[in-house]
Amino acid sequence: MNRTAFYRPSVDVDESAREADARARAAHRIDRQREILRPLGLLVIVAVAVSAINGDPAPAAHGRGLAVAAALVLFAAALAFAVRASFITRPTVLQTAVIASMGAAGVALVALQPQGATELAGGAAVWLGVARLPRVAGSAVAAATTVALAIAESLAGGSAAAVAAGVLLCALLALVAHFVKQARTSQETTELLLARLEDAREQQLEAATLAERGRIAADLHDVLAHALSAAALQLQGARKLAERSEASLEIRAAIDRAGELVRDGLANARHAVGALRGELPGVHQLESLVAGFRSDVSSDVTLTIEGSPRMLSTEASLALYRGAQEALTNAGRYAPGAATSVVLRYGNGRTTLTVEDSYDERSPIESGLAGVGGGNGLIGLRERLERVGGSLDAGPTDSGWRVRLEIPA
């Protein structure tokens, strides 16, 4: 239980880091204040004990002295318990009972020993009741203790001036405790409001930034991505026409190179749109990735998910997504028109992603990473996987190329 809960109405479960820091500072500040005031409570115990021991009747094992001893022990035990650091974590009902017992003991001491400093016992109960209990319970304990002290003082033969002085002391202690408590609450409220104001400013700036980035992303997608998609389709048609008309190898190579550049541009445009929208991709977006690749390059791409899907860490999920992205980009670049399969398999403690293309008529490719875009993309991907404890295996198969990623998740 939070130590500041006795005066704070509620705690927002979804509070921000700034709010949590403000609450932590308030709790630390209150703990420090209690540490400073704790010796004062022990001093009150000593003062009341000395006054009771030197009073008449003195504490004894019989008669009125026994009643004085019992009241003194109850007061000392209750106040010693109330000044402990763990007292504020106790249920409110228990705190109320302890402070009320302290007040009752103070009233008994005043009734038994009207002369001396025994009124401090009741005053301590008034202070703690207002300072530590909820408003209604604290006011009730303070008021009842003050009235009872006045009646006890009056019945014990105290003068009107003594009764008035006792009531004034209790009222002053209650007033000071109230203002101290209000100051604590106001200070924390102010700090929380400042924290929320900073959060609101950040959210406003972030919302404006995201809105602008979203507008740019929409324009980029509508203009550039659509134009590149159309250009990719036109280049595929041009390639087929060049083959049908038996155009020179230079023309075919130029068309192939143009197609490769367009496909790279499509992939880069898709990445840029996602980044502008603040999207952090993962395996949950593999379906849209495959669909987009299928639409952009008009290739036969399938996605299969095996095993029971489960939550992966953000880094692991992002690594698998980037692996699929890189492998599909390479397939579109070096095996245009090839049938490509993407298989995500959730195994026992391991998750694997395999991207394999099959195209018998494509040009021979070199083995290893050197034949896939110079290897830089897969090398960077391998480093990303190693950071999450995973591994990457890429190489030729009998009919194409396979990229396999594995992570321990």
Strand order of the largest sheet: 1-2-3-5-4
Principal-axis shape equals: rod-shaped
Number of domains: 2
**Topology order in helix (H) and strand (E) letters:** HHHHHHHHEHEEHEE
How would you classify the helix and strand content by structural class? alpha+beta
N- and C-termini, Cα separation: 35 Å
Q: Could you give a short account of the major beta sheet?
A: 5 strands, mixed
Whole-number radius of gyration?
39 Å
- Low-confidence parts, pLDDT < 50 over ≥5 residues? 1-13, 362-374
Number of helices: 10
Indicate the mean pLDDT. 81
* Strands, total number: 5
> How large is the share of residues in beta strands?
5-15%
Helix content: 55-70%
Mind sketching the topology for me?
Blueprint: H1 17-53, H2 63-82, H3 92-112, H4 119-132, H5 135-155, H6 160-244, H7 249-276, H8 286-297, E1 301-306, H9 314-334, E2 339-346, E3 351-358, H10 376-387, E4 391-396, E5 400-407
Parallel strand pairs: 1-2
Antiparallel strand pairs: 2-3, 3-5, 4-5
Helix pairs in contact: 1-2, 1-4, 1-6, 2-3, 3-4, 3-5, 4-5, 4-6, 5-6, 6-7, 7-9, 8-9, 9-10
Q: What are its keywords?
A:
disordered N terminus; 5-stranded mixed sheet; 9% strand; alpha+beta; 409 residues; Heat Shock Protein 90; 2 domains
Quick rundown:
The chain is of the alpha+beta class.
What do you see in this structure?
- It contains ten helices and five strands.
- By secondary structure, the chain is α+β, with helices and mostly antiparallel strands.
- It folds into two domains: 17-202, no CATH class; 281-409, Histidine kinase-like ATPase, C-terminal domain (Heat Shock Protein 90).
- It has a five-stranded mixed beta sheet with strand order 1-2-3-5-4, with helices on one face.
- Helix 3 (92-112) packs antiparallel against helix 4 and helix 4 (119-132) runs antiparallel to helix 5 (135-155).
- The two termini are 35 Å apart.
